[in-house]
């Protein structure tokens, strides 16, 4: 039996901007998530990573492609199958200030999913479950009668995590759950998610733009740029041997807590503006900012391929067409050095 709990196949999500124009937020993305792992999805703001999460959840309808969860197409579910899906998959939202109803108590926020899905026979049983969840996420029982505005950002996100756990899900999409938090609190939330995963056997899709934090929690990482997946491999392999020029640039921006190393290392500065997803560049979408761009990059979209074992990349530097002299650019170093 396959270990793949989630399969995303050539997923596209376009938004109508005006007549004849579409914003291509997600443009043909393919990956899978194994049961029990944390799959990290990273990239700049506006690259489409949060749109992928919302489309997987069914909050957005797909434009094309498939989302297969436990061998069932998410966007073709109906009735009881859809109810069951939403019990099995939950979401932690980015902004803990906006994702909690300010007029509801913590008890009401966490117990509402249980009431909707008819879990537990009495209010007393639901309240006991609320208390249990609050303690699991590091809060206290008496917090149940308070309102969201009475908590700090980190505490609010813990409430959001408790709400996501209310239905005992198997899979959680964490949509930038730490980006709105203070740096001192971010590590606490990440450690909480890791502990909950180990305790409950959860599977995570962890969406973020901070590569250094994603490395701490992810087993595998996919790197996105302008609606496209450009590289995917294990967390360690991505940091030790990044292949795509965009991945290298992202990694070079991560500060190193050693003044001597930080001063001597080379930072890759990407020139030019981020292209519009309404009118993306022809061929490779990264070519307008890529320091290693070649003629072929403007002519052909790079193929998603396995450059080495379990290391996938979409870049012409690793194409067989590099053997064709007409695609050679003598000014380019394939090694990137």
Describe the structure.
- The structure is a single chain.
- This protein has 337 residues and is α/β, with parallel strands linked by helices.
- It has helices spanning 49-57, 80-88, 106-116, 123-136, 153-165, 183-200, 211-217, 235-240, 245-252, 259-264, 295-299, and strands at residues 4-18, 21-34, 38-42, 64-69, 72-73, 89-92, 171-175, 203-208, 220-225, 228-234, 304-308, 311-314.
- The strands form two sheets. It has an eight-stranded mixed beta sheet, with helices on both faces. A four-stranded antiparallel beta sheet has the order 2-1-4-5.
- A hairpin with a 2-residue loop joins strand 4 and strand 5.
- The radius of gyration is 22 Å and the shape is globular.
- Mean pLDDT is 88; it is low at 321-337.
Give a quick rundown of the structure.
This protein has 337 residues and is of the alpha/beta class. It has eleven helices and twelve strands.
Task: Looking at this protein, list some descriptive labels.
337 residues, alpha/beta, 8-stranded mixed β-sheet, 4-stranded antiparallel β-sheet, 31% helix
Mean pLDDT: 88
**Widest sheet: strand order?**
6-7-8-3-9-10-12-11
**Gyration radius from CA atoms, angstroms:** 22 Å
Q: Which structural category do the helix and sheet elements fall into?
A: alpha/beta
Q: Judging from the principal axes of the Cα atoms, what is the shape?
A: globular
**Biggest β-sheet strands, sense, barrel:** 8 strands, mixed
Catalogue the unreliable spans.
321-337
Order of helices and strands: EEEHEEHEHHHEHEHEEHHHHEE
The count of helical stretches stands at 11
How many strand segments? Answer: 12
Distance, first to last CA: 43 Å
Overall helicity? 25-40%
Beta-strand percent range: 15-25%
Q: What is the subunit arrangement here?
A: single chain
